[in-house]
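Collaborator request, handled under Task 6.
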Amino acid sequence: MTEFLVYRAGVILAAVALDRLLGEPRWLPHPIRMIGFLIRTGEKLRVLPLPLKLSGTLMAAGVVALTGVSVWGLLYFTYQSLWWGLAVETLLVYLTIAPRGLADEALAVDSRLRRDDLPGARARLAMIVGRDTGSLDEQEVRRAAVETVSENTVDGVFCPLFYTVLFGAMGAWMYKAVSTLDSMVGYRNERYRQFGWAGARLDDAAAFIPARLVLLLIPAAAKAAGLSARQAWRVGWRDRLAHSSPNAGHGEALYAGALGVRLGGRSSYGGVVSEKPYLGGEFAPPGPETIRQSVALLWWATWLLALSAAVLLSAIGLAGLQMG
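Structure tokens returned to the collaborator:
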């Protein structure tokens, strides 16, 4: 029913407001743990007399389907009362987004750098990045923090809200299932190259459109944050496909342009050195204010997306009501 699109607009705005106020509820057992449990259980499909790629595909499909059915069932039950349903759906969407947690962690790294506590900054950074942090200098710590903010603007904000617009909380949680699959089994190593293939490809497909939405909203967010919208668009469009990932480079390139800094370069993961292409190669490396500027850009992008989604849903919903 079209009125539910108007309700969904309110759910999105309320979920973002909750995240801004409360951040990640560390005291609450997070439902992502259940998805992790399903994935670990699904790894038992390895023993089936099937090609690993096929058994991994069956596992991925099962995890996403079970997640979607579980959320649908919960919402079907709670929407017997409209206000209970809206409250539960808002809570579910809130649990899929992470701008406050991402911002807090990045600022915690920044605060330690400002106190000249490089070891503490490295330790805090290690909580939010996958790369080796033990030998990073101050400049490299800043770069890593900004890169993770830019990447997670897509993964932790744009993707779940995009699927909320389309399918409500069920869509957001099915995306989280895909994202968790990629983070747990989507590696190109001997154990997961075949078994985790489906999870990794699903994640690439699921993030394809949201990663490109940043081309529209990050420049506007940069303008609102007092940064360079023109550079964001120019560098973002030019460098977005330089990254090995089909999606990750979009956010990073736009942030590099908006902030006027060079991202990419050498990083180490588990002792293995990776050379990533430079994004915004004409600029200097991140400076003392860059982490705080990246957090401001994250929040402006989050609110612009939420408001745009709410306006779109409300317009479609109200138009449908008038036609009905």
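The cover message to the collaborator said: "The CA atoms of residues 120 and 320 lie 54 Å apart. The longest helix spans residues 138-185. Please let us know whether this matches your experimental observations."
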